[in-house]
Design a protein that fits this description.
The complex is a heterodimer of chains A (1077) and B (402). Helix content of chain A is 37%, strand content 19%. Chain A is of the alpha/beta class and 1077 residues long. In chain A, helix 33 links the parallel strand 35 and strand 36. In chain A, helix 13 crosses helix 14, helix 14 packs across helix 16 and helix 25 runs antiparallel to helix 26. The longest helix of chain A has 18 residues. The N terminus of chain A is likely disordered. A ten-stranded mixed β-sheet of chain B has the order 10-14-13-15-16-21-20-19-17-18, with helices on both faces. Chain B has a seven-stranded mixed beta barrel with strand order 2-3-8-6-5-4-9. Chain B has a two-stranded antiparallel ribbon with strand order 1-7. The longest helix of chain B has 18 residues. Chain B is globular. Classes of the chains: A alpha/beta (1077), B alpha/beta (402). At the A-B interface, helix 9, helix 15 and helix 16 of A face strand 7, helix 3 and strand 17 of B.
Chain lengths: 1077, 402
């Protein structure tokens, strides 16, 4: 390393390549956009040329202004090598992009790329990464510094298993290696169980290997965020204590900061150990997290793991303390030391070389999505399953916990009861839910106290520390007291105390059996209002210039609202399937645009992973649940000129009507227009008025009504409840029997939520259009053609921009139609339309006058931020004034592909359908559709084999296109296997094909062949509940054996095209692509 | 109020409950007229002192028992105080020296495997008046902006009888710490030998084994136990002597080194200690001072001390070694400081605070004497700078080797 004269940063480096995290998957979400975006900014402002690679278009970090050269390309070593060859960076920073980036860095090192191009890894060396990731090396390193790791052993047969058992003792955790989702493992408490689990595990493991670990179930779990600079200055940014004991993945645990149940002496043991771990592993600069398990009876400490990079928990720690770990880590990587960097939150009054002191309690609760994957085991274990999280800040644990609960948006406003009481086995259910945790355990804990269970009992079943439990017990006592009172009895003192404990108006109203508004009126009449305190890293020791705030009920308010003209943006809350980073991207852009235009910007959100909750993005950040009560209080204090609700997904939209009724100035498309688009009956009238077409449809409110209507419309039908995002409970039914089952089981039918029936346009081409309007003029952002045909949820379908085989004439008709719709709805801001094209006809499927999931993708393709344009329209700047009056159609192709969490949910059928299941997306760009599609597959982690055997089994409706698909695959050199019916069709066109047994046709059958690795590619289209169920084993087996499986004929054709293109992929920066527009 | 847990996970006596909400009113009045109304915890009654805040998130028991807090009412900025109860291992002295305690929330339960007594009982037993359920952040911001203010906590019957006006009057009557010699008040009265070693998990404070030890005489101006443990565990025989012990009496003990402890109050009036220190300097006896001891060494060398506008009380303070640039996160607790501009030529500045630039360490260029303003013994706080104790040993070794 060389350091410039009088300059702390390295002068030998000129350009740095930052590796991004790729698509959002479970365990690796938008926290890496937060860290990556910070790293880009941190390095750029130091004058380095920043080169970035990340395949995820929905990120802020891939905005063209964030780096000098931005590659929205797959984060694989082969592609990155091309980038390195082209850009010749001096260094690679691999610590900002999660495991993806670390793995890519190790691969680059292993394949000699770094050496070949003389590129240095900064932030973490490959030795350090290896030492942290390799279990044997890690154990050895820990032993060297006198720290314990959990006892463990490895076994390939029963003899070795018993030898390992001698090491670890009972109870022990047995895990077969390389099984999907760790299936087949278990906890053994005795010899009998041990033999049983090991025998099964050896069978299930493809490598016949078992990991046998000492069980730390019930131990306390802590995580420390450490930052170190090259002069060996170390600080602990935050100590996080898990509410859930060991046995639950920390990503799936409720966690609390700071640590609550350690004395100083014990905490210092952790602190010293964490720093020693960093030194031993060799993390020279940057942030790492170290996880500890601690025996609650003796304080015995073991190291669970460490990550030599920023992580989900470092994002949480940054938000929890106000200390921007990623930003600081990036600066340390280029040679600064902690004392040379200022602490921005105190306006630079103090340096970054200190440990944040906090004077509040932070609670994080994960959000699960098991309802999307009903076939999977919904117990939470050592493998992470949550898809998002909420964070809340309060002055006490009770307050922060209850704020977090209502911020989760799972239909609760606090500790709403969950247990169905009065069943004969209610108590057994309760006991099971406590002992064997699911995603909703914390509500069952409250239910247990409602049932009068003791803290001892609950602690014994859950392993949760009594310190937490007693406080939940206390809240339940309060709930009981409230429910026995009348509203009049709740005087100012009582109410203030309850609000201090975090009770929402809504929860209290429920307990009092009154409407929420009545509760709110009462509270306002008594003058009980929240105050806002600042997150300042220093517990008020120094004045803070940063307006990062949270609400609480105390004496002094520190908000100090200004009298500037303000725009407030409501965020999307915790990520979930159907509402993720794309919406946060839009919120961030709205805030940035408004700030650029001179408004004071206010952000309200409660998702710690996001860029929107970075206090630098807006002028004022309220880290608050996005609920009616919490938002309204901020509005009353800040008095914004306008509030933007259409960018945060369904979360703020759901509040729009009530906020508007409460006098909140919502800008952009009116709440009524949103309702018009979502209300099927009103919508239908509009479509008719405009002379447009919809698939035949109707709304039903009972089973009988649905059967009658189905006769009229005819099958197949798309069925769904109204008002949903992400296609919850959406299905395609092919006959009356299926319709009856759907109506009976999938939805609660009633006037409140009617069910929509649409005629299903089989094999139609689906199209997405994003547009922006200022209320007078409409400009189309982009027309996107889906790869998968209609029937697959738009969020799960790959799509191409521009369309890859729609005529100009059809596209013009589409432009005309969406413009009519936007004008009719008086859209001010964004509008997304989904259409279907079949046999020369265009059908309008859905109109959403709000930001859509595709806005960031479109923005990256056309070089204009649609969200910014839309925000400006909403604030009153016309499109003409903005100079955006014409659609930009790129010459190149971009393909967006969805990424799925199927490998985390064993037992789930990886078939695509109308219910959205993807967690993230990637973008591939190319001169041709084929190149773009090939990259999108690579980015999504799909390794398509270029030769071998392909198995084909398609439904009747797809048989006409079989010749094309089979012909292409044959030409590519694949040998063809098919089920009898399909084989007959293939043979009839003169192609060589081998007939294969279905699973119910005797052995060996197709599943045997997949297991024997005799199949390299599968085309399996199917329809109807029964047929889908019958063939699900094929897809599940393919998933487990990493065999590419497409469930649509259009998908198969696209894959053929990309295979024809070959692997001669070029890399492009979006800056150069935009310059060509 | 004890409820015990019987389960697979918890030792029977490991958790302690407070069943009821706090009901007795208490008030904190400040000399500037500010009133904070909260609930009484600990003993009921009246107490006054200088109100300071400490931002440490752990270590309330160590803070309360630190003699340097004599005549100070401590506000802890972390809202939940009492989470882990108290135990017999974590005291820094026999008594609670802080005049009072101000917190936001006393938790319903103390939960930790080493807990022996709840904070509430601990305070009551030691007759400490304390107040909870006030907006401690408002108080902290007030103290930050105005500097330490004199204040009074009044609770229970006394509050009922005397009213808030009495608290205000008491606050205004408190004379303040400037010019107050508290070291001799908190000091032990007769010398004794210290033998306890450092705390280890599962072992407690083991007696330090001695093998050809150095003999360190430690002046007790209000010494924290962990300082003595740090010295003792470095193979030293430690004799603790009262604050006003004369140099001659100390010399009679034939010390290899003299340690000047931390302590409360203003260093300037401690003329007896300053005089003794001058004598040790003359004789080239290795000297190590901490906190008040640092100020006394500085005064003995001819430097000046001042009362700080905003004292240091916390466990997250960055202190930089001026020569090496290394930054240590340190525990701090001082309201007076050595003025760097007043240092004579033979007294070198070694450390500075990165929070406010104040002087944090000094060293004689011509004598084996040095001192640190913060707390290298931690307890509570980070252990980053314990190496200063090793430096003390080095000085004694060098001296012994001639």
């Amino acid at each position: 390393m060389t350091y410039g004269l009088n300059m702390p940063k390295r002068s030998d480096l000129k350009s740095i390549l930052i590796l991004g995290a790729g698509p959002i998957v479970i365990g690796q979400a938008c926290e890496f956009d937060y860290s990556g975006a910070q790293a880009c900014q941190a390095l750029r402002e130091e004058g380095y040329r920043v080169i970035l690679v990340n395949s995820n278009p929905a990120t802020i970090m891939t905005d063209p202004a964030m780096a000098d050269a931005t590659y929205i390309e797959p984060v694989t070593w082969q592609i990155v090598e091309k980038i390195i060859a082209k850009e010749r960076p001096d260094a690679v920073l691999p610590t900002m992009g999660g495991q993806t980036a670390l793995n890519c860095a190790l691969d680059l090192d292993r394949h000699g790329v770094l050496k070949k191009y003389n590129v240095e890894l900064i932030g973490a060396s490959s030795e350090a990464i290896d030492k942290a990731e390799n279990r044997e090396l890690f154990d050895k390193a820990m032993k060297a510094i006198g720290l314990e790791t959990p006892a463990h052993g490895m076994a390939h047969n029963m003899e070795e298993a018993f030898a390992a058992l001698d090491q670890v003792g009972f109870p022990c955790i047995v895990r077969p290696s390389f099984t999907l989702g760790g299936s087949g493992g278990g906890i053994a408490y005795n010899k009998e169980e041990f033999i049983e689990i090991c025998t099964r595990g050896l069978e299930l493991s493809p490598t016949n290997e078992l990991l046998i670990d000492e069980s730390l179930i019930g131990w306390k779990e802590y995580e420390l965020e450490v930052v170190r600079d090259h002069k060996d200055n170390c600080i602990i940014v935050c100590a996080i204590e898990n509410f859930d004991a060991m046995g639950v993945h920390t990503g799936d645990s409720i966690t609390v900061a700071p640590s609550q149940t350690l004395t100083d002496k014990e905490y210092q043991i952790l602190r010293n150990a964490a720093i020693a771990v960093l030194r031993e592993i060799g993390v020279e600069t940057g942030g790492s997290n170290v996880q500890f398990g601690m025996c609650p009876k003796t304080g015995r400490l073991v190291i669970i793991e460490m990550n030599p990079r920023v992580s989900r928990s470092s994002a949480l720690a940054s938000k929890a303390t106000g200390f921007p770990i990623a930003r600081v880590a990036a600066k340390l990587a280029i040679g600064y030391t902690l004392d040379e960097l200022r602490n921005e939150i105190t306006g630079g009054a103090t340096p970054s070389s200190f440990e944040p002191a906090i004077d509040y309690v932070v609670t994080k609760i994960p959000r699960f999505t098991f309802e999307k994957f009903p076939e999977t085991n919904d117990r939470i274990t050592t493998q992470m399953k949550s898809v998002g999280e909420v964070m809340a800040i309060g002055r006490t644990f009770q307050e922060s916990m209850q704020k977090a609960l209502r911020g989760l948006e799972v239909g609760v406003s606090g500790f709403d009861p969950l247990l169905e009481t009065g069943l004969s086995d209610s108590m057994d259910i309760l006991k099971r839910e406590l002992k064997d945790a699911g995603g909703e355990r914390v509500w069952y804990v409250a239910d247990a106290f409602r049932q009068g269970w003791s803290v001892e009992t609950v602690a014994g079943l859950t392993g949760i520390d009594p310190w937490f439990l007693v406080q939940i017990e206390d809240l339940m006592k309060e709930e009981k007291r409230i429910s026995e009172m009348s509203l009049e009895q709740i005087d100012k003192d009582v109410l203030f105390r309850l609000k201090q404990k975090g009770f929402s108006d809504s929860r209290m109203a429920t307990l009092l059996n009154i409407p929420e508004l009545r509760m709110q009126e009462h509270r306002h009449a008594l003058g009980v209002r929240p105050v806002y305190k600042r997150v300042d890293t220093c517990a008020a020791e120094f004045a803070s210039t940063t307006a990062y705030m949270y609400s609480t009920y105390e004496e002094e308010c520190e908000a100090l609202p200004s009298d500037r003209k303000k725009i407030m943006v409501l965020g999307g809350g915790p990520n979930r399937i159907g509402q993720g980073i794309e919406f946060d991207y839009c919120c961030v852009h709205a805030a940035l645009a408004m700030r650029e235009d001179g408004y004071e910007t206010i952000m309200v959100n409660c998702n710690p992973e996001t860029v929107s909750t970075d206090y630098n993005i807006s002028d004022r950040l309220y880290f608050e649940p996005v609920t009616f009560e919490d938002v309204l209080e901020i509005v009353r204090l800040e008095k914004p000129h306008g509030v933007i609700v259409q960018f945060g997904g369904q979360t703020p939209l759901n509040l729009a009507k009530r906020l508007e009724a409460a006098g909140v100035p919502i800008i952009g498309t009116s709440a009524d227009a949103i309702d018009l688009a979502e209300d099927r009956e009103r919508f239908q009238r509009m479509i008719q008025k405009l002379g447009l077409k919809q698939p035949p449809n109707c709304i039903v409110r009972s089973v009988e009504e649905s059967i009658e209507a189905a006769e009229r419309i005819s099958y197949p039908l798309v069925v769904r409840p109204s008002y949903v995002l992400g296609g919850r409970s959406m299905e395609i039914v092919y006959n009356e029997e299926e319709l009856r089952r759907y109506m009976r089981t999938s939805v609660k039918v009633g006037n409140e939520s009617p069910v929509l029936l649409d005629y299903f346009l089989n094999a139609a081409i689906e199209i997405d259009v994003d547009l922006v309007s200022d209320g007078k003029q409409v400009v189309v952002g982009a027309i996107m053609q889906h790869i998968e045909q209609a029937g697959v949820h738009s969020g799960d379908s790959a799509c191409s921009l521009p369309p890859y085989n729609l005529t100009e004439e059809v596209q013009d008709r589409i432009r005309e139609q969406v413009t009519m719709l936007a004008k009719e709805l008086n859209v001010v801001g964004l509008m997304n339309t989904q259409l279907a094209y079949q046999d020369g006809e265009i059908f309008v499927i859905e109109v959403n006058p709000r930001a859509s999931r595709t806005v960031p993708f479109v923005s990256k393709c056309i070089g204009v931020s649609l969200a910014k344009v839309a925000a400006r329209c909403m604030a009153g700047t016309t499109l003409k004034e903005q100079g955006f009056e014409k659609e930009i159609v790129p010459h190149n192709f971009a393909v967006k592909e969805a990424v799925f969490p199927f490998n985390k949910f064993p037992g789930v059928d990886p078939i695509l359908g109308p219910e959205m299941k993807s967690t993230g997306e990637v973008m591939g760009v190319g001169r041709t559709f084929a190149e773009a599609f090939a990259k999108s597959q690579l980015g999504a982690g799909e390794e398509i084999k270029t030769s071998g055997a392909v198995f084909i089994s398609v439904r009747d409706a797809d048989k006409p296109r079989l010749e094309e698909v089979a012909g292409k695959l044959h030409k590519l050199g694949f040998s063809l296997l098919a089920t009898q019916g399909t084989a007959a069709v293939i043979a009839s066109v003169g192609l060589p094909v081998t007939s294969v047994n279905k699973v119910n046709e005797g052995r060996p059958h197709i599943v045997d062949m997949i297991k024997n690795e005799e199949v390299q590619f599968i085309v399996n289209t199917t329809e109807g509940k029964q047929a889908i169920a019958d063939s699900s084993i094929i897809r599940r087996t393919a998933l487990r054996h990493d065999v590419t499986c497409t469930t649509t004929i259009a998908g198969a054709l696209a894959i053929c095209e990309s295979l024809e293109f070959g692997d001669n992929l070029s890399v492009y920066t979006i800056q150069e692509l935009h310059a060509e527009l | 109020m004890k409820r015990s847990f019987h389960s697979a996970f918890f030792h029977p006596d490991f958790a302690f409950y407070r069943e009821n909400a706090l009901i007795n009113p208490a008030v904190l009045a400040l000399e500037d007229g500010s009133i904070f109304r909260g609930r009484a915890i600990g003993a009921h009654g009246v107490t006054s002192g200088e109100v300071v805040f400490n931002t440490s998130m752990t270590g309330y028991q160590e803070i309360l028992t630190d003699p340097s807090y004599a005549r100070q009412i401590v506000t802890l900025t972390y809202p939940h105080i009492g989470n882990t109860g108290t135990n017999s291992e974590d005291n820094e002295s026999d008594n609670v020296w802080a005049s009072g305690l101000v917190i936001r929330d006393l938790p319903l339960v103390a939960s930790n495997w080493r807990n022996e007594q709840t904070l509430e009982e601990f305070l009551k037993e030691r007759n400490v008046v304390a107040i909870a359920e006030i907006d401690t952040r408002r108080l902290t911001r007030l103290l930050r902006d105005k500097g330490p203010l004199n204040g009074c906590v009044l609770s229970g019957e006394a509050l009922e009888k005397l009213g808030e006006a009495h608290a205000l009057e008491q606050a205004r009557q408190f004379p303040g710490l400037k010019g107050m010699d508290l070291a001799k008040e908190v000091s032990i009265k007769t010398p004794f030998e210290w033998q306890e070693g450092l705390w280890k998990l599962g072992e407690g404070h083991k007696v330090a084994p001695l093998d050809k030890p150095f003999h360190v005489v430690a002046y007790d101006f209000g010494a924290k136990r962990n300082i003595l443990r740090m010295i003792a565990s470095r193979n030293c025989k430690v004799t603790v002597v009262p604050a006003q012990t004369s140099a001659e009496d100390v010399l009679a003990l034939k010390p290899d080194g003299v340690f000047l402890s931390n302590g409360p109050g203003d260093p300037e009036p401690c003329d007896y200690a300053i005089a003794a220190t001058k004598r040790f300097l003359e004789l080239d006896i290795p000297i190590f001072g901490i906190c008040l001891g640092c100020q006394i060494l500085a005064l003995a060398c001819g430097a000046k001390t001042v009362k700080m506008r905003l004292g240091h009380h916390g466990a997250n303070h960055p202190v930089q070694n001026i020569d090496s640039g290394v930054v240590s996160i340190t525990s701090q607790n001082h309201g007076f400081a050595v003025e760097e501009a007043s240092l004579p030529a033979n007294l070198k500045a070694t450390h500075r605070s990165l929070f406010d630039g104040s002087l944090q360490g000094i060293e004689r260029t011509d004598k084996p004497a040095f001192a640190f303003q913060g707390h290298p013994e931690a307890s509570p706080g980070p252990h980053d700078i314990t190496s200063l104790f090793d430096h003390f040993i080095e000085l004694m070794t060098a001296k012994a080797n001639g």
